[in-house]
Amino acid sequence: MHVGESAPESPPAFPYQFRLGLSLVYGLARPISVIVSSDPDDGIERQTWHHVLRVQIHHGVIARIIRWLDSRPFLPSFLRTRLTAWFPGAFLPDTVVLKGIKPDWDDEFANEVRMYDRLRPVQGTVVPVFYGVAAGRGEDGKEERALVISDVGGRQLGGVSYAEHSLDELRGMVKLALEAIYRLGVSPTDANLSNCLVVGDRVMVVDHEQDEELQEEDLKEWSLEEIVQGMVDSIMERHQAVHAPKEKMDVEAARRANEKWRARYGPAALGMGLGRAQCGGGGVAGGG
Question: Degrees (nearest 5) of the Cα angle 263, 264, 268?
């Protein structure tokens, strides 16, 4: 950072409300924002995803009453089930992430809802918990839909150095996460250094709007283990390109390795055989 230059501040918080089921939820929202570069010469660069909000929820009186009723042993189980279904907002954690729909991305939004349903067995361990689709207000004041997911915290894989976790540790964490997703028949086509978050001693993958169902044809040419390993190699080669000492980097070798991986595993791991154009995007906590 240059002398006298201050770090770019994160966006301010603002009052926000959304509806989830019959619940009207209030809180303070702030767009997801992270420092993506901190260079002594170029200064600090911050990236903000305005359609992804971290919301600190204020649980009002009604929500507290509903939670109190739910905790009473005298309440019949069928009523407890209905309370949870009718008023899901009352049972949300204190902080959640709302990922709004991007312009002209209706299909991708619907696809992400489907993917979270398929990934239900690993929600909370490998991917965020999906609480449902909320109706909120966009920056223009218009009502818009948003995914409500858990705030997993953590840091982007691309920002984690080998001083914090060794290369082998990171590779193992990435492999465990991707393998769990692939085994549920989902191809995480947008898993990258931004969408893989290091949370403690594990990796969680966010941003599933471009995920695809793993096709039987893919498994005829490559085994599931080969597809997973190919994806892990691709991600970690990029990580090494960012964090390896520059005097030891062989850019041409990295390029050749990446082309070799794409030629062998690309169509299956990236879903290229399904004919849908891949759109770039980054994500933090709730995706991009």
Answer: 100
